[in-house]
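Data availability (excerpt). The following record was deposited with the supplementary files.
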Amino acid sequence: MAEKRGVRLNRPQDVRRLLSRLVNESLRHEIENDQLRVISYTCGMILKSFEIGELADRIEKVEESIGGRP
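Predicted structure:
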């Protein structure tokens, strides 16, 4: 049996690509609904972490531009 490689989810686009692939696999009945549900939830958390990281970076830049944190 061939070993599967891990999936790299370094950018939101990577997560969207994975979700798209999984939806297609689900429609072809190649993945169980429970597996899809777990992976989809996890992908949602990953996307949220990207969003939080981006917002934190933006806040830091704004704080630096106005003279730092109080």
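Summary of structural features: The two ends are 58 Å apart (CA to CA).
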